[in-house]
Amino acid sequence: MANDPRNPSGPGAPAPDFLAGLDTFSRKIDEEQKAREREEAERRRREEEEARRRAEAERVRQAEVQAQRKAEAEKQGGGRRFAALDMLRKQAASRPAAKALIHKNLLSAMHYLAEFAKELNGVLPTTERPYGFIHLHQASPMVLSSAFADYRLRKVDGDEVCDQVFLTYHARYAQPAAVDVAGPDIEYCRRLFAMSRVPFEFSALKKNDFGQAVSGRFALSGAIPCEVHIRADYDAPAVLIELLNVGTIGAGRCRLAPEAFNERFADEIAKHALGSQNEFAKFVTR
């Protein structure tokens, strides 16, 4: 019976405890392997979840930055548009008041300059200093005469307003003025006098071998036309003043704000014509 193969306790058969231990060990190995696999899978899941969370957070941050930039750009752009509109609206709102002010002050200047012209024609005054220019180094004062003031009206937005005021007169050197020049200055003076409508006589003091004057003298003895032209700008409210041979030989001009031009300023123009100290000369560009 000892050699009966059905007897598990016979010689050569594994012991029951060893088999049970081997099976337990195998199951333990399998469980540990599965646990490691679960831990690895969980780790990968957490890493992937963290990566997705970070990517989503970055996307949200970028979207917020772009939205903020867009809002700031729209705000700035809107501010500029609103500022431009405000400027236009303010200008449109100020035009009626500016138009009334310009009209009133031009009429006031007209009345003053008409009175000045009347007095000038009665007195035939002599200026305090001569009407000079760059090449005139010494001359006598001017005698003024033949003054005349006038104005023109036109309609602006249905209203008749004063558009232009004129003052014209003649100025003559009390003693004929002589201007000695040479070289290119001869042609410069010739053009200046022609453009300014200043009558002159020229005599050559020296000529070259070709008979051309290299030096000469301009004699100024005739009546010089002088003009003050005051013009209203009702579109871009201002007063424009253009001069010809007033205070100085040649042209000059200035542009004033509506509130800067008034009867007192017209008096400064008259003082400038008389060659006396005045504030108007500071505004003139020649």
Layout of strands and helices, then pairs:
Layout: H1 16-123, E1 142-156, E2 159-173, E3 177-182, H2 184-195, E4 201-207, E5 213-220, E6 224-233, E7 238-244, E8 251-256, H3 263-273
Antiparallel strand pairs: 1-2, 2-6, 3-5, 4-5, 6-7, 7-8
Give structural attributes:
three-stranded antiparallel β-sheet, 46% helix, alpha+beta, five-stranded antiparallel β-sheet
Radius of gyration: 51 Å
Q: What would the average pLDDT be, to the nearest integer? A: 88
* Percent helix: 40-55%
Q: What is the number of strand segments?
A: 8
Order of helices and strands: HEEEHEEEEEH
| Tally of DSSP helical segments | 3
Adjacency order of strands in the biggest sheet: 1-2-6-7-8
Low-confidence stretches: none
Mass-distribution shape: elongated
Distance separating the two termini: 147 Å
Structural class determined from secondary elements: alpha+beta
How much of the sequence lies in strands comes to 25-35%
User: Biggest sheet, open or closed, and with what strands and sense?
Assistant: 5 strands, antiparallel
What does this structure look like?
The protein is α+β, with helices and mostly antiparallel strands and 286 residues long. It is 46% helix and 26% strand. The chain is built from 3 helices and 8 strands; from the N terminus they run H-E-E-E-H-E-E-E-E-E-H. The strands form 2 sheets. A 5-stranded antiparallel sheet has the order 1-2-6-7-8, covered by helices on one side. Strands 3-5-4 form a 3-stranded antiparallel sheet, with helices on one face. The longest helix is centred in the first third of the chain and has 108 residues, at 16-123. The protein is elongated, with a radius of gyration of 51 Å.
